[in-house]
Amino acid sequence: MSSPFPPLPQGDAPVIHVQTAQGQQPPVTAARLRELLATGALPRDTALWFQGLAGWIRAADHPELRAATPGGAADDQMDAVFSELVKESWAYYREHELAGHIDEVLVGALITTALDSGHSLIDLNSDGTNHYLRFENIQGDQSRVVFQLRHLTPGLTAARVLGQRVSVVIGYGERMPDFGKVWQALKAEFKSGFVQNPEPGTITVDGDMNSGYVYVQVDLYLDIKHYVGEGYAINYPRLNRDVGATINALRKYLKGRFGR
Amino acid sequence: MLGLLNKFNHKSEIRESKDEILVGEVVRAMARQGCPAIAFRSDSDFQRVRFRCPKDPVLHSVYVTLDRKTGSGAISGALLGSKATLSITAEVKIYLTDPDDILAMYRTDLAHLFKMPILGGIRLNHELNSVYATAALLIDIDQYVLKGEPGVQSFMGLLAQNIAALREKLASYRR
């Protein structure tokens, strides 16, 4: 714990003012004050003041005098125990905190990965548990990548039992040059609507009449620990590999299905 | 005809997305500096991202908030540009405070009560075991977005400069 008090004045000049129940005493040096406290000539609750202090303080409260007062060493020991308890509490607190926001660390890593592959973030919606991200390769082929994430194990207990799991829908979209392709996608989207609870690996189709984009998307469950390690270290090679492989599969499906 | 309409809608989508594009660049740049994003709160014109700074000697975390005021529509964009308020809040964590520390901080809070960060100043505030310093700026997103690497670098310079000022302000509170 840091001390809110300035250090005791050094040197031989008696500049520490002392006040006891008997009234104000003549000023003393730091060495003399330690001596008086150690012998019990002055009690530990003697009030003192010197230049730099905002007001009078209790002698035993100043860390440089605490050990000199009878019982001070024991007090220091108790402070050390208390400090250790607080330190342990912070470790516990951080563990809970990380379990709660590890999905958002993954969201940040996905943004970094997508930007590194030439895309720009064009849509971001998040309420802390559900996250929606849309990217577009604006300067290039205008292809789009979409991520919908939902943290399945937001508490430490769930995370300890099940691991850190996230449900992810990854989508890939391209702008279709003619209305026929978008119409075809809308029909496929209608059929996709019958998939109530998509199982992993289920590919669904989505068409956007407004912008002329056709998306194909797949449902997956990911283990966040594969990508986010100790001290917020991100395993970018693994993330790039997994996202890249998924996008590649979706791109092939889109081109095969809609022939672009 | 449909192609023309799609092209128009696509342009409009990109115009509306300029604030998200900027936020994406901030997330990547902060990650490269060792500050991963740990919290997102976002809707159409408001984005707040919190970054954890495990390697920073002073700061525990940094919040970047982008609140877009104009430019989502074609007319307001042409007339006013894409104006937004950018708030940067830096946080120092105090792992153990004693009553004297807390009293000293309340005095600082009181002194900063009526200080408006939007005017370029830095406002200090403290809650429980954290001390926050906030700076706010009015920016034109168009100056930085879709301008290639120079635009991104220019924005990151602005961000780094403000974070450095906040770090300096908070350095004395680090325990």
Structure description:
The complex is a heterodimer of chains A (260) and B (175). Helix content of chain A is 40%, strand content 25%. Chain A has 260 residues and is α+β, with helices and mostly antiparallel strands. Chain A folds into two domains: 16-70, no CATH class; 101-258, no CATH class. In chain A, strands 5-6-7-8-10-9 form a six-stranded antiparallel β-sheet. In chain A, a hairpin with a 7-residue loop joins β3 (47-49) and β4 (57-58). The longest helix of chain A is centred in the middle third of the chain and has 45 residues, at 72-116. Chain A starts with 15 loop residues before the first strand and ends with a helix. With 175 residues, chain B is an alpha+beta fold. Chain B has a single domain (2-173), classed as Yope Regulator, Chain: A, CATH 3.30.1460. Chain B is 42% helix and 29% strand. Chain B is built from five helices and six strands, in the order ααβββαβαββα. Chain B has helices at 2-16, 18-32, 74-80, 99-111, 148-170; strands spanning 37-43, 46-52, 61-68, 83-93, 122-127, 130-140. Chain B has a six-stranded antiparallel β-sheet. The mean pLDDT of chain B is 80. Chain A binds chain B through residues 1-2, 4-5, 83, 86-87, 90, 101, 104-105, 107-109, 111-112, 114-116, 120-128, 131, 135-136, 138, 142, 175, 177-179, 182, 210-212, 231-232, 234, and chain B through 2-3, 6, 9-10, 13-14, 17, 20-21, 23-25, 27-28, 31-32, 36-43, 47, 49, 52, 54, 95-96, 98, 100-101, 104, 146, 175.
Query: Unreliable runs of chain A, pLDDT <50, ≥5 residues?
Result: none
Strand order of the largest sheet of chain B: 1-2-3-4-6-5
Fraction of residues in H or I helices of chain B: 40-55%
Q: What is the rounded distance between the termini of chain A? A: 66 Å
Q: Which two chains form the greatest contact, residue counts included?
A: A-B, 44 and 37 residues
SSE order of chain A, one letter for each helix or strand: EEHEEHHEEEHEHEEH
Write down the domain tally of chain B: 1
Shape field of chain A: rod-shaped
The total count of strands of chain A amounts to 10
- Identify the CATH class of chain B: Alpha Beta
Low-confidence stretches of chain B: none
Task: Classify the beta-strand content of chain A into a percent band.
Answer: 25-35%
End-to-end gap of chain B: 65 Å
How would a crystallographer describe the biggest sheet of chain A? 6 strands, antiparallel
